[in-house]
Design a protein that fits this description.
three-stranded mixed beta sheet; alpha+beta
Length: 353
């Protein structure tokens, strides 16, 4: 081990310790000429935003089984893709996933652009994702900085500026180490180092390939880094969801506006979400309020939905939404919070049938 951080030391460690991930080409296979599929790299990077590898693995394998290529995904039904995405959160990513796939097919002949600049022209691809695809899929020396990389750089250089203020400083530190040889493997190596050794708690410094070069370890501050600004406590919002079923089994659903939370997804008509939601029944009916609430946590707030249910006859016409025939309804097309509402309402409607 050297007293200065060298990319080749990390790459040597990565060659022996790379994680086995379904979207990754192992370093040995890559050395023998196997090239990563840009579609799989892009899909994994979009899924991994604000989500863990453990949570993403099953989703990734299911998506690639259903839609093996970007052309397959571009041709998929919006509702099915949104339903398969349910549980990963940040649903704008799923909408942009479809927009991006269709742009790649329509505007680029089904081939992802190679350069960071070209990738940035696609829907839903920001600087980090563009750099990751360009480096990992095309082996270009782009600087790839995710949360793992930020943590490694903060400790390696003993940087105490709190995140997110420290992002430019940490990016400069990462750029200084990014090699021109094997930049794709190097980008993944730093991520793996942060995920398996330079972990948020109890880092395994004794087996780190950059142990002797780490300024935080020398100063005894590794457990305190990276520093972060205090997070604000999440507020709780309240709402009402209305679940109506016709005598023929059809359910009243509405598709949410494309923009905004859960945009473009199916859901139950409901009130606004706030401190004192205003009741907004979608039709006149003998609504009955359930004792249980559907509870869900979004990125910026907690949500508690009261649930009103009603059984109506086949001639009922709603003011909001449309009745979906029983045979066409798929629970899996709903986002997670709406599935929670349905699971609670279903039992109540069965009891009232």
């Amino acid at each position: 081990m050297r007293d200065t951080a060298e990319p080749q030391d990390l790459l040597h460690w990565y060659d022996a310790n790379a994680r086995d991930l379904p979207w990754r080409v192992a370093p040995g296979a890559r050395a023998s000429g196997v090239r990563p599929d840009p579609y799989r790299i892009w899909l994994s990077e979009v899924m991994l935003q604000q989500t863990t590898v453990a949570a993403v693995r099953t989703y990734f394998e299911r998506f690639t089984a259903l839609w093996p290529t970007v052309t397959d995904l571009a041709a998929a039904e919006d509702a099915q893709v949104m339903g398969e995405w349910a549980g990963l959160g940040y649903y704008a990513r799923a909408r942009n996933l479809l927009k991006c796939a269709r742009a790649v097919v329509d505007d680029h002949g089904g081939v992802f652009p190679i350069t960071r600049e070209g990738l940035l022209g696609l829907p839903g691809i920001g600087p980090y994702t563009a750099a990751a695809i360009s480096a990992i899929a095309y082996d270009l020396p782009e600087v790839v900085v995710d949360g793992n990389v930020e943590r490694v750089m903060a400790r390696l250089h003993d940087i105490h500026t709190p995140l997110p203020t420290a992002k430019p400083e940490l990016t400069r530190a990462a750029a200084a180490l990014t090699p021109r040889a094997r930049p794709g493997d190097y980008a993944q190596a730093v991520m793996d180092l942060g995920a398996t050794i330079c972990t948020p708690k109890s880092p395994a410094c004794g087996i780190c390939p950059w142990m002797r070069a780490c300024a935080a370890r020398a100063a005894g501050t590794e457990a305190d880094l990276p520093r972060k600004l205090a997070k604000k406590e999440k507020p709780t919002r309240l709402g009402i969801a209305y679940v109506a079923r016709r005598d023929d089994g059809a359910l009243l659903l509405e598709r949410r506006p494309d923009k905004g939370l859960l945009g473009g997804m199916l859901g139950w008509p409901g009130s606004d979400w706030g401190d004192t939601p205003t009741p907004a029944p979608p039709l006149e009916a003998p609504w009955q309020m359930l004792d249980e609430e559907a509870r869900h946590t979004f990125t910026h707030f907690h949500l508690r939905l009261r649930i009103a249910v009603a059984q109506v006859d086949a001639t009922t016409r709603p003011e909001v939404g449309d009745f979906m025939p029983k045979h066409a309804f798929r629970r899996t097309d709903l986002p997670t919070v709406m599935r929670k509402v349905f699971d609670l309402a279903q039992g109540a409607l069965t009891d009232r049938a």
